[in-house]
Amino acid sequence: SLAMLACGLFAASNIKVLVAIGVHLALVLMLIFIAVFSIQAFKSYGNPEKFDRLVLFVVMGLGSGVALAKAISMKPKKEKK
User: How far apart are CA 1 and CA 53, in angstroms?
Assistant: First the structure.
């Protein structure tokens, strides 16, 4: 989406404040995507006509969850003094 592209551009900048905004906004957007995909999957569950949507929303939700976990795992470690 366009919002995630903007987050990527912010995170790739050399300005510390823009990097922080881009990274944190991207994390929030990933959480929102997971919530939306989960809600849509729940609404599609049990309806045979919407089974194709159910599979799509489950896959997209799991993919977003994996991306969020990977983004969190890449957080820089604090240096010990």
Answer: 20
